Amino acid sequence: MSPQGQAMAFKLDGAAGAAHVTTVGRDVRETVGEVRVNDPRVRCTDVNVHYGDKHAIKNISLDVGKGEVLAMIGPSGCGKSTFLRCLNRMNDTVRECRVTGEILLDGEDINSRHIDVVPLRARVAMVFQKPNPFPKSIYENVAFGPRIHGLCESKADLDVVVESSLRKANLWDEVKDRLDDVGTGLSGGQQQRLCIARAIAIEPEVILMDEPCSALDPISTAKVEQLIEELRQQFSIVIVTHSMQQAARVSQRTAYFHMGDLIEVSETDRLFIKPRHQLTEDYITGRFG
Amino acid sequence: MTNPGKALPEGATSFARIQAGMAKRRAAERRFKMLGRLAVSVGLLFLSVLLISIVSKGYTAFWQTQMRIDVVLAAEDIDPEGTRNAETLRKADYSSLIKQSMRDMFPEVSGRRDKFALYGLVSNGAAFDLRDKVMADPSLIGTKVSLWVPADDDVDMLMKGHIDRNAAEDDRRIKDNVLGWINQLEAEDRLELRFNIDFFTKGDSRDPELAGIRGALMGTIFTLIVTLSLSFPLGVAAAVYLEEFAPKNKWTDLIEVNINNLAAVPSIVFGLLGLAVFINVFGLPRSAPLLGGLVLTLMTLPTIIIASRAALKSVPPSIRDAALGIGASPMQATLYHVIPLALPGMLTGTIIGMAQALGETAPLLMIGMVAFIADVPQGVFDPSTALPVQIYLWADSPERAYVERTSAAIMVLLGFLALMNLVAVLLRKRFERRW
C-alpha cells in the first residue's frame, strides 16, 4: 500500500464533515476536472453507448495516459464497465449495443468499422471480474495468447514467454512446479493473477481490468494491487472498481461516473481529498453508492 | 398445512411452532423418498421382466440340432469323367446323395409321402455343406464320409422341447412315424445340440435352421457408419454456427423452430422422403446401407443439433470472454475453448441419436431394406437389411423356430446398443479427464 493510499484510507473515514466546499452542484452533468493528459495512450471523444433504447454512456471524453493507472469508480449501473468494454470493443459481442464517438489508440480510431477487433484486443487486453482461467493447464493458459498471435517461433521461446509472464504476475514461484495442473484448480487469487499473466503474455499496450478483485479475499487483493503497481511501468491500466480505497491505493487518476455521465476526473489524491463536484463528494463520503 | 402451530397456545415461541411441525415435515420427506424408490423399482421390474422374457425365449437359438449322416461319395455320381473340375464339382447333385444316405439309414421306409418326410429330417442346407466339403477336399470322392449337418427346424424344436412329444398326434407337427425315426437317430447318437455358429456367420434364410444374423448386423453397422460420419459433423457444425456465429434474427428463429419440429416428425416420413428424393430423384441403389444411412442421418440430425446447442449454451460465457479478451478470433475461441468444453454433451446427444437410428425400422421399410436378402453385404452399396427390420421379418414368420431367433436377434441388438453406449461413456470419460 502506497503512503498516499494510507493517508487516503484515513481521510475517507473522517471526511464526511466535508472540510472544503465543492464548486459544482448536483444538477450539473458536465465533466469537471482534467479530462485530457499530454501524450495519451487512449483518447476518447464524445463516446455514447446505447443498449437498444437505453442511453448507457452519454458523451464521455476521457484520456488514458502512458504508464498510468486510471481508476473508474461509481455506483452500480453507472456505465463504468460499459465504458471500459468500449476500449477493446468487447461490446461488439453484446446484442443491440451501439457505440458511437471517437476512441483513439495511439492516434488510430479503434471505434471505426474498418478496424479488425482481433489485433485490437491483442493490444488492449482484458481481465474480468470473475477469474476465468481456461480449464486447461496453467502453461496452456498463458501460452494460448502468444500461440494464436504467432508471437513465438519455437517451444523454447514460448517457455520463456510463459515464465516471464508468470514472473511478472508474481505467480511463478507458486506454480513453477505444477505448470501442467489445471488452471481452475488454483485459488481464486492465484486464478486472477493467472488471468493477468495470460493478458500480459501477449504484450498489450493497455490492460483493462473490470473489478479484478471483487471476488478475492483481502490478501489476494493486496497481491493483485501490488502487481498492478508493478505492471504500470510497462502498460497503461484502466481499472473499474467498487472499492474507493482500492482506487486510492492503485491509481494515479480517478474518474467518477454517475448514471452514464462522467462527472469528474482528477488526480486520485485530489479527487478524494478535494472533490469539485457535489455528486463526487456525495459518493466518496458514502451518502449513496 | 396452513397453520401448523394451530394447536399450540397463544404466544407459543417460534421454536415450539417449528418443533410441532417437524413430525409432519419428516413424514412428507419420507413419503417423497418412498415415491422415488417406488418409481425406480417399478422401472427396474419392467426392465427385468422384458430382459428375462427375451433371454429365456432366445438363448436356445444359440444352439442348433445337428445330425450326423454317412454319405457315400461315389465318383460316378459326382464326377463321372474324373476331371475334378471345380465347375463339375459345384454342379453335382449332392442333395440326392444325402437322400440316398437317409434311405440307407432307414431302408424300411417306402412310399412317396414317407420318403418325403424322411428327407425332411435334414436341412436343405446339408447339401451345400456337403458340396463345400467336397470342393475343399476332392480326394474325398470315392470314400464314405461322416459329417454333421443341420437338422430340420422341426427336429430342432422337438429336441429343444418346444414340440410336445406327448401331445396327440393330430396336434403335433411331427407325426408318430417321424418321431420314431428321430428316436432311432437319438439312440444311435446321431442327433446333438451344438453351438449355432451359422447364426453369427450367415445371412437370412427361408429355413430357420439356416437363418443367421450376420447379414442384418453388417447392414446395421454399415448404415450406422454412414449415419455417424454424416450426422455428427453436420450436426455439430450446424449447432456451432447457429449458437456461436449466426446473427439472432427472425431467420435464425425460423430455422430453430423448424429444427425442433423436425425432431418430432414421425420417422416414416423421413423414409418417404428418402424414397422420393434419394431413390427417385438421385437414383441411389435401393435397399443399400448408404441409402439407409442417409435417411437415418436426416432423422438423427435434429437430435444432434439440439443436444449440441444445449451443450454449447452450457459453456460459461466467461470462457468466450476470456479468449476474446486477449485477442482470439471468434473461431479460435470456439474451436480451442468452447467446443472442447461442449464435446461431452455433444457426444451424449450423438449417442442418443445413434441409438435411435439403431432401433429405427419404419423409414427403412420405405426404402426397401425390408427385402429378403440372404447374402451378407460387403459394403455400403450392397443390398442389405438391418437388425430391427430383421427382427420384424422373423417375428412375422410362421415357423416356430423363428420365435427363438427373433428373441436372439433382439439380444444381439441390445448387445450392440450396450456396446455403443459403452464406447460413448469411455469417449466422454476421456474428454472429461483432459480438463
Automatic annotation (TrEMBL), chain B:
- Which GO terms are recorded in the biological process aspect for this UniProt protein? phosphate ion transmembrane transport
> What is the superkingdom listed in this entry's lineage?
Bacteria
- Give membrane topology per the record: Multi-pass membrane protein
Name the major location. membrane
Query: Any transmembrane segments, and where?
Result: 34-55, 216-242, 262-284, 290-312, 333-358, 408-427
User: Cross-referenced PROSITE patterns, in alphabetical order?
Assistant: ABC_TM1
MF GO annotations: phosphate transmembrane transporter activity
| Domain ABC transmembrane type-1 residues, every copy | 217-424
Q: Where in the cell is it found?
A: Cell inner membrane; Cell membrane
**Which UniProt keyword terms apply here?**
Cell membrane, Membrane, Transmembrane, Transmembrane helix, Transport
Output this protein's name.
Phosphate transport system permease protein PstA
- Organism annotation: Denitromonas halophila
Taxonomic lineage of the native organism: Bacteria, Pseudomonadati, Pseudomonadota, Betaproteobacteria, Rhodocyclales
